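Appendix B, example 12.
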Amino acid sequence: MICDLETGVCGVAGEDDMEFFDLNQPKKTIDVYYVTDPICSHCWALEPVLRRFIVQYGHYFNFHTVMGGLLEKWGDGPVDPANGINGPADVAGHWREVGEYSRMPIDGSLMIDNPVQSSYPPSRVYKVIQKHHNDALANEYLRRAREELFAFNRNIADKSELMDIVNKLGLDGETIVNEAEQLAGQQLLNEDFGLARSLGVRGFPSIIMVNEEKKGVKIVGGRPFSYYVSGLSQILNGEEPQPRVLPSISNLLEKEKLLFSKEIEEMYNLEQSEISAFIQKELTSGTYEEKELLGEKYFVLNK
C-alpha cells in the first residue's frame, strides 16, 4: 500500500516494487557565456527568461557573465544608425518601446535629462566585485544596477550612484568604485572584451553554450525560454535536459528582493491576470509589498 504525496490518496502501490535512481548531480561539462552590458535594454528584457533558465537548468552548466562594452562614450557621429540612435536623447524612446514590449518597465527619461555617458564605469565595478568577492555578488550588483537605471531612472555611470548601489550590497562602495576607476579596473574589463571577441559576439545579449568538445551554440538577442532549452539539448548531443523543481515564490522573492510581474509569470507559467491570486495564495500577508511602476506590478520583500 502507498499514500500518494501529490494526490493524498492511499491505495495499492502498483507493480513496480523497486525503482532505480541516481542522486549524483550531472557533471558540469558545459560553459554558458552571457555577454551583456549594464545599460543594454534588451538584456533587461531578457531577465525573466534567463533567470528561469538558470534556476531550472543551471545544474548542467557553469555560468559566466561577460561584460561586452556597449558604450565607451558618445561621439559626434551616430552610435546605432540602424535604430535611429545618434545621441543619448534618441535612446529614451527606444528604451520605452523595449520596456512596453517586454513588460520589464523602463522609464528612459534619464537619457534626456541626465544621460549615461558611458557603460564602462558600471562594468568596471562589476569586474572589481567579481575579483574580490564572487560571481554571485557581482551578478546581484548587476541586477541592482539595472533596476536603478531602467526602472528607477538613476544614472549608474555616476560615481555617487555606484557607491550607493555597492554600499547597499553590504560592501565598501567607495573603495570598490575608486579601484574600478584605476588602470587595473580597465584591465579587468579589457579581459572580458577579449573573451567576447573570441566568442564572436557582435551584439547583446548573446548566449554562447560550449561543451567539453569545444562545440557550441550561439543565441543572439532576447529569445523565448524554449530556445535556450533547445540550445542546451543540442550541446548535450540531443539528450533532453531534465529541469529542477521550481523554488517557491517566497524563496525566490527572498533571494531576489524585487520581482516584476513579468518575471513571476515567466517563472511559473502564469498569465498576467493570474498574478494577484497567485501571490495572495503563495505569500504570507505582511511579508511583501505590492507596488506599481509604469503600469506594471512589482513585489518587494518587507525588511
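The longest strand covers residues 30-36. The chain has two domains: 30-198, 255-301.
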